[in-house]
Amino acid sequence: MQSIHTKLLEVHYLDLGPQDGWPVILSHGFPYDIHAYDKVSPLLLNSGARLIIPYTRGYGATRFLSPKTMRSGQQAALATDIIHLMDALGISKALLAGFDWGGLASCAAAALFPDRVAGLVSYAGYDVANVEEHKRAAAPSLERVMWYQHLFQSERGRECLRENRRELCKLLWEEWSPYWEGAEAAFERSAPAFDNEDFVDVVIHCYRFHLGSEEGDPGSEHLEKKLAEKPRISVPTITLDGTEDPLKPGGSSSHASFFTGRHERREVRCGHAFPLEAPEEFAAAIIEVHKWSEGDE
User: Where is the AB hydrolase-1 domain positioned along the sequence (predicted)?
Assistant: First the structure.
């Protein structure tokens, strides 16, 4: 584990593989952590990659540098965290891959900063949040699965997450990955990351902002306006769908028009925790996109 200061954060991260390897930034989601890539990493290292796996803001040992910085969880903030980390590490261009918040952050970064992104692997699909659309009701079956997001809109939800964070997060793991037998042990490895002092504030803001009930950071407003226009992603991309994920019913087959560069969509029988449940397929997608970015077939 290493640490480095960016514009807003002291980011703690893993830096694996040769320093001159092809750089990949692996971003985790909620409620997961860097251990989501424990089985993906060896496969990528065998292919010559340099892996940067950071704790997202609000997780693990990553900390805000100033108490005055808004504990924002909005997509523009998560995306710029990736770019700021690249700046601090002296990485001009990297392949981005992620799931859940990590997919959101990677997609948003690819859409906003395409000159910094060599390629993209996203679970699931074009994962940029449509805040205006999220203000409207979804199908009842999906609204039921999103119970935690509705809970987080209230102060009762903040208290529930603060006082029962492990119980609540474990319940989400179980619901989102119903056929994954390795969840118990994996959760115990990841759960300490939720003890971060900013975890609750960042998580609550993320879901309040993306459901339209709370304002974002004024410093990110110009980027959010760009994301609201649904910018297309031009970098080489593979999008992944887990067919057993209750959060993504029907997958992302309708998202193809959002990708103007080379794009392929793949389905795998797994739940929401794609890199944990299907590490071989996740790594294979990253290696394939790297080949595309290098001009190899």
Answer: 23-278
pLDDT of residue 64: 98
What's the length of the chain? 297
Cis amide prior to 31 (ω within 30 degrees): yes
Q: Where are the alpha helices (DSSP H) in the chain?
A: 41-45, 75-89, 101-112, 131-134, 140-145, 147-151, 155-163, 165-176, 183-190, 199-210, 221-228, 274-277, 279-293
CA distance 55 to 48: 23
pTM of the complete model: 0.96
Label residue 138 by pLDDT band (50, 70, 90).
Answer: confident
* Biggest CA-to-CA distance, the chain: 53
- Which conformational region is residue 288 in: left (phi greater than 0), alpha (psi within -120 to 50 degrees), or beta? alpha
SS3 60: coil
Helix, strand, coil percentages for the chain (3-state, nearest 5) = 45, 20, 35
Q: Which residues of 155-165 are buried (b: 16+ CB within 10 A; e: fewer)?
A: eebbebbeeeb
Tokens read off for 228 = 């609201």
R_g (Cα) of the chain, nearest Å: 18
DSSP state of 272: S
Q: Is 249 helix (H, G, I), strand (E, B) or coil?
A: coil
CB 126 within 8 A of CB 238: no
Q: Yes or no: say if 39 and 28 are a contact pair by the CB < 8 Å rule.
A: no
